[in-house]
Amino acid sequence: MAWLDKAWLDTALEALTAFFLVAGALITFISSFGMVHLRDFYLRMHGPAKATTLGVGLILVACTLYFVLIERTFHIQLLLVTIFLLITAPISAHLLAKVALHQKLPSDTSTTGAPSELREEDVAQEPDTPHPEDPGSGQRP
Amino acid sequence: MIGIALWISFFLVAMAIVLNAYRLLVGPSLPDRIIALDTMYVNSIALIILYTIWLSTRVYFEGALLIAMLGFISTVAVCKYLLRGDIIE
């Protein structure tokens, strides 16, 4: 790749690599901080499920750019790791949410609404007037 | 420029792993601990990639790929165990 041998291109690649490195590490740190800081499990799941993929993806992009910078070669393996993480992170988050609903973990008090797994079941009440074709039901003790 | 950025990234990712370890040890429920382990392996991939940049070698790429695959499989296995009481039915 001879067209890459330019001085300003080296500077630009270096700046891009440094920017992607710091941005990815910052997003990774923020997602882990959210996992410690937030109040219940359903809130804590947001950090790892969303931000970690972006943070590690940015670091992997920075590594790809770094090897373009020093070796003038393009490695596809790191993009494979990124694609794999992009595919698998929603699946594991979905399974973890299913586990949390299965164990009926408590949610924060300011949470409004609930999925059908956590709601009270609707149970029909006994009618006030007995059914005309079933007179025995009105005389239960 | 990359050297300074590398040091900042090492510090931030290491602090992220420390926070994950806190949630892994303290976490009040079992899914909390599982998601702490899940985040920890993703952060360890980031740490391995930073080490790769630090050494300027390509030796550890396969290691990152292996950690990604095995970590996902172990998370799914533990979740299946908690959901169904069995892993392979």
TrEMBL record, chain A:
Residues 106-141 are annotated as: Disordered. Residues 117-134 have a biased composition (Basic and acidic residues). InterPro entries: PhaG_MnhG_YufB. The chain crosses the membrane at residues 15-39, 51-70, 76-97. Keywords: Membrane, Transmembrane, Transmembrane helix. One of its GO terms (molecular function) is sodium:proton antiporter activity. The keyword Cell membrane does not apply. This is Multisubunit potassium/proton antiporter PhaG subunit. It comes from Kushneria indalinina DSM 14324.
From TrEMBL, chain B:
One of its GO terms (molecular function) is sodium:proton antiporter activity. InterPro entries: MrpF/PhaF-like (IPR007208). It is found in: Cell membrane. The keyword Phosphoprotein does not apply. The keyword Nucleotide-binding does not apply. Belongs to the CPA3 antiporters (TC 2.A.63) subunit F family. This is Multisubunit potassium/proton antiporter PhaF subunit. It comes from Kushneria indalinina DSM 14324.
